[in-house]
Amino acid sequence: MSTSDVTRRQFITAASAAGLAATLSRSAWGRSPATADKLAALGGEPVRKGGSWPAWPYRDAQVIEAATKTAQSGVWCRIDAPQTGAVATFEREFAQLVGAKYCVATGSGTQALHTCVEALGIGPGDEVITSPYTDPGTLAGILAARALPVLADLDPLSFQLDPQDVERKINDNTRAIMPVHIMGQPVDMDAIMRLAKQHNLKVIEDACQAHLAVHRGRKLGTIGDLGCFSFQSSKTLGCGEGGAIVGNDEELVERCYTVHNHGTSRAGRTEVAGPKYRMNEFEAAILLAQLPGLAERFARRNENAHHLTARLQACPGIVPQKLYPGTEAGTYYVYGATYLSEQFADADRRTFLKALAAEGIGMSGYIAQGLHREPWVDHILGTKVYQRMYGATRLAQYREQLACSRCDEVCANVVSMFASGILLATQDDMDDIADAICKVHEQRDQLREIS
Q1: Among 202, 235, 322, 439, which one carries the catalytic annotation?
Q2: What is the pTM of this model?
Q3: Residue range of the domain that includes 38
Q4: N or C: which end of the chain has fewer CB within 10 A?
Q5: Is 202 a catalytic residue?
């Protein structure tokens, strides 16, 4: 029976049973019994005492030199060197890096998403299905075109769009699916692409967190019609802000270029309505300076993440993010897992995180609530443009169908850490994370004493 067919509890049991004996055989995780029998939050010795994580955002001498040289050059805008500048060079190199034919660099991932929606001719009266468990930028890319973002529910263990719920949300006005590769892991792209083909829909991959991740031999962002990336400073490739669109259809990517260049084509003719979303030379220079070591850092994150996941199989209360068949490598922008309070003496997540922090390991809950619970819904449903373009009946139905109960479950139970820098640490550091979690689990009866 496959993971997708079993119940949540059956999956958890299967995932944890193999490693449970290994944890029990590790005598106090390499520490003396005297220091392991009391939680640090209650006065015991913490698992991790001090020690820093690799600094983020990434910067080295090459990054500093690139920014300095750009400042001194006086070439700060892509139009000053349209073929030879840093932006044009980055577009060529990033396209090659991800295995796409073409790339257009933008000022942010949100701008990339909006550009794609506009370039595909999606606007008022049209609908795009996406995830409620994502950065608001995903939503903004659709709303900026005055299209209607339709939110489908999640698979509660992968935190990704549930293709079955996506299919339920498709109607005559649906124009595209915008899957979000949350935390840098692939959505079930086999199922998404089947749906798109069956219903003649476009696919815009929100790969803003998913640089270099691989699904069935293809890097994320290159599977759908267009793919979008973010280079915001927390990302595994960052420059403060910045984004990119990749694709293999030359005509479509050229439309993206025209849209993002205030509607002006490379030929210099103003052809469509469009914003000015151009990446600047400073951002591109900083990105280019990071490319030589990017693959090595990507590989190290995967190696450390796999080690941590293997260790956490021994703790039945923490279930790492489920990966779909075909996932060959992940970005691990965020390392996420499901917290099972029943395996921690029914202690709530806040108490668990407080106990873990006292052991020297910081984790959080990531996204506090899904976008279906945010006030933008009341705002757009009250605007004249949405009332005029969609009508009272559709908007009433839209509100009724907005509930995403499995997203609520994910928001309530996920524990995570931003991993761009953390997963570049040593394997011993990964053991500290696992040891701290295992200690809290083994001493879970003490959690009721933490206020």
Answers
A1: 235
A2: 0.92
A3: 3-56+294-367+410-449
A4: C
A5: no
